[in-house]
Amino acid sequence: RFTEELPLDVQPLHHLCTLSTEMEGVSSCAPQIIFQRFIASISFHGKLKLYEVESKIFTQFPVNQIQPKWECQILLSRCRNATSSTRIVSMTTCEIKAKEKLSYVVGEEKETALLGYMAFATSNGEISFVKIYDMDKPSLMYSFHTGILDATSLSCWYSIVHDNNVDFHIVIGSKLGILEEWSINYTTTNEDSWQDHIIWKGSFGTPIHSVHVSCSNGKTLLSACISQFMKPPSPQQHNHLRGHPNNTNTFQISTVEVMDRNRILKTWKEGQQQLLNLFDYCLWPKAGCEWRNLSFGDNYITSSTGGGGAEGVTFGSNVICCVDETSWATALTDGTVGILQFLPITENDTPSWGVKLDSHQVALSFPAIGISVVQLNKKLYLVCCLRGGTVYCLNIKTNDDDQSIISPVFLPPFTMMKDDEEEGDNTDFEFLHGFTAGNIQTIGESSIALADFVNNNGKDISSMPIFVYSGDGGIIEVYTCGLVLMSEWNKPEEFALASALQKMEKNGTIQMLLDALKNMSEQNPLLQQAIWSSAHKECCNDHYIISVDDILDFSCHKYDFIR
């Protein structure tokens, strides 16, 4: 935190499984957990893969090479202006609301539900829509070309006009600073028909890295992470820039710009249908709710924008993720992470935004490569992953009355990620390319037992928290925290003991204990304690010849005290 150190609770992550991606090179987008049902991954060349998480994984971890449940090809070769370098650069989802869920019959008996839609953007501005079903293969619906070059980001939402008519809206940004909104009308009366047209377009004149849309009370805010070149406010503050600029004239920072979409639409409809200067539509944050800028030291407050300094754009930073309908979070290149909120409408009917609580903005030691929202122990957290894989969890509090400020920190054991035995191989991820986290519904025969266990222990059974990393060669690894790993639902304490013993066997602690018992004299004061005395007798009974495997075998009761 800016004013004080944040209390941390460090916990390990446990490796659940490895996903079989078989992709050439890195995945073009960070993996996503979609509709609490699938882990979605897509390659540079448009190969979409959806993975299910079976409940047995939580009892038999780690599991290697889980195959995708469904696959779908986004046909980049059909894109206009497509070249060999055309690639997928962004993907996003639109979830069908519960009251709008649609079902159809597969075969004679099986019924599946339409979970929602996914939208994909290519580097040359092509947009593709895919339907995602609960129990059937995804289907490519529609593709069209926006004309944007060097596209970087995409945001999508929809509205139901009537039973057979859906209006999609997408906002797409580019490295050239262009931002466009398109409307796509989807009609399903006799056969599917699509109509697309542009709503408005504008420019920041500087690279756009990510975009997000928030709606509340008929008002819509557009948020964009962009890069800008600025001058230090004073020569003294220049010496304290976190971005270490190359010269004293200008330096590059990443900022958050929040725009009033309603004003943009009004201007466009009044006939000014030309490239708009988007800075003219940016909103000031509410007084006292500004984003604190670390570029000029901890005490500098930004004016209408928020952001932090960086000499260049850090891979994976400058990202925005949705928290709920009226809140969103962003991570910038200077290591700042914050939660922004749609604040109550002001007297002049102008929407307002800002950082509502001091605890909703923190400064990490390095830029985050990915941020997501996850529920842990009935509390909602914004999770932020650094380049090395460390995950910080920021409690998403709604008011200052919530005094729970301790933040969990999760450390994944990346030494388990590669099983190459050749000498000299690096057993770690050389480079993390993406991260996501969230809660996912588990499937399989053990789901009922899992639900029973969670119910009996007073936890939320809606879904299980997982953490997903992607790295070199398209490798995707899935982790979870130890709180949800229970091999026998009625004996969680035995699972915890077995997990601890396995770690002690690997690091040699069990063998050290056996050697200590073997060489312990009768006068040792430890033998005055009952547990040490009983363990020593177990050693004596077997003439000090004890196998570590027997210690790990819970069916062997000869060594309960040693265990």
Describe this structure in words.
This protein has helices spanning 57-60, 235-238, 261-269, 447-456, 492-506, 509-518, 530-541, 548-552; strands at 8-19, 32-34, 38-42, 47-51, 63-66, 70-73, 88-95, 102-106, 110-122, 126-133, 139-145, 151-162, 165-174, 178-187, 193-203, 208-216, 219-230, 251-260, 276-277, 306-309, 319-324, 327-331, 336-343, 352-354, 361-363, 368-376, 379-386, 391-395, 407-411, 434-440, 464-470, 476-481. The protein has 563 residues and is mainly β. The strands form 6 sheets. Strands 1, 5, 26, 27, 28, 29, 30, 31 and 32 form a 9-stranded mixed β-sheet that branches.
Q: Quote the distance from N terminus to C terminus.
A: 42 Å
Shape: elongated
Helix coverage percent: 10-25%
Structural class: mainly beta
Radius of gyration: 27 Å
Number of strands: 32
Major β-sheet annotation: 9 strands, mixed
In percent, how much strand structure appears in the residues? 35-45%
Low-confidence stretches: 104-110, 238-247, 296-315, 415-428, 445-462, 485-492
